[in-house]
Amino acid sequence: MRKTLCVWITVVCWLALPAAALAQNGAFSLKDGDTVVFYGDSITAQNLYNQWIELYTVTRFPSMRVHFYGAGVGGDRVSGGVGGPIDQRLSRDVFAHKPTVVTVMLGMNDGAYRPGSPEIESAYTKGYEHLIESIHAHAPGARITLLGPSPFDDVTRPPQFAGGYNAVMERYAADDRELARKFDCAYVNLNPPVVAALERAGALDPLVGRLLLPDRVHPEALVHWVMAETLLKGWNAPALVSSVTMDGHAVQLLGAENAAVENLEPLKNGLQWTETDRALPLAFNRKNENDALLLELTDVQQALNQELLRVTGLPPGQYQLAIDDKPVAAFSAADLGHGINLAGYPTPMWQQAQRVGWLVRDRDQTHYVHMQMQIKKMDPGDKDGKPDALDAFENFVEDAIYEEAAPKAHLFTLTPTGAEP
């Protein structure tokens, strides 16, 4: 644990219940110095949706230090599981980190994979109440977000019994919403957007649809992005990475948002300037089939990943954009005049974000192993007054993450290459 604080889509919908725990006036819910713990079962233990949320936060707000911890254990219910009973789980895996933000997603195992019953549902809600009350007691002031559970796949395959198990999950999501109201928590329902993505994927290709939740329970990475996007929207995550607008004819900067532009000047043929974006894009790769499908199924690029460049007043023709003397792509004057989203191209900023992502992955995987060692009571090397070796490594990698994410200046050039085709 950290000891010190050092495009478009019609099928994906999301439900979020604003509460006192959410930021006001549209501001992003997380803030500098926050410690976020993602609590849940094996779906959280996959370390994916929480990893994507961490990656977004680090790249979008690189000057805002936030600490993230995954606390998912396979098979968990509101009463706990193989990681220990609920009070032990919370004490060791949540409260020890002194969280200021806690998300909770449970329910998949609580329903016992059978038709719903009042007895099972009552045990779920009562256990959940105890869980929330314990967080309030042992992490006072922590902002809690309850997550309606991701679905059991009754979409791409026929239900196993009348009504299907996802109907039980939908019922539990409704219970979660009521608990959020009762205890003044935030609420975000992950079930509908994942169902919508499954429906969309199944319409494209039935086999692809089934592969998104291959065992009907555990989502593939693409679906975790759907879940992460849904939670980020519920937390008022901004779409903007940066936005720069200039008049190419007058060689004049017209506006810069979340970016600094210096030394804008004409070249013999074209323009040149130095730009420092204060954030990095999410490095989705259209050459990767999973990323390409994600971008087809969701609006994540439009909703969370807008790195905009607009250059008006250019004579008609094609223009080559290069950054740090490396070609990015060619664009028409008309496209540049309307604006292009640089997040969709392998720019130096995109490559920097990729490196950040690798470090986030390494740290999150280390923490998962660390937690498993604690569950199994194995020695992490902290006996006889020595520091916890994995703790030290987690902190080392977290520092490296923010060092890698720091804004960097880049040289942009825009030169004509010929007439428009």
SS-based structural class?
alpha/beta
* Proportion of residues in extended strands: 15-25%
Q: Indicate the overall shape.
A: globular
Low-confidence stretches: 1-24
**Arrangement of strands in the largest sheet:** 1-8-7-6-2-3
Tell me roughly what share of residues is in helical segments: 25-40%
What series of H and E elements makes up the topology? EEHHEEEHEHEHEHHHEEEEHHEEEHEHHE
The CATH architecture term of the largest domain is: 3-Layer(aba) Sandwich
Topology of this protein?
Elements: E1 15-17, E2 35-40, H1 42-45, H2 49-60, E3 67-72, E4 80-81, E5 84-85, H3 86-93, E6 101-105, H4 118-138, E7 143-148, H5 165-183, E8 186-189, H6 191-204, H7 206-212, H8 221-234, E9 240-247, E10 252-257, E11 259-267, E12 270-277, H9 289-297, H10 300-304, E13 306-312, E14 318-323, E15 326-332, H11 333-338, E16 340-341, H12 348-375, H13 389-405, E17 409-418
Helix pairs in contact: 2-8, 2-12, 3-4, 4-5, 6-7, 6-8, 8-9, 12-13
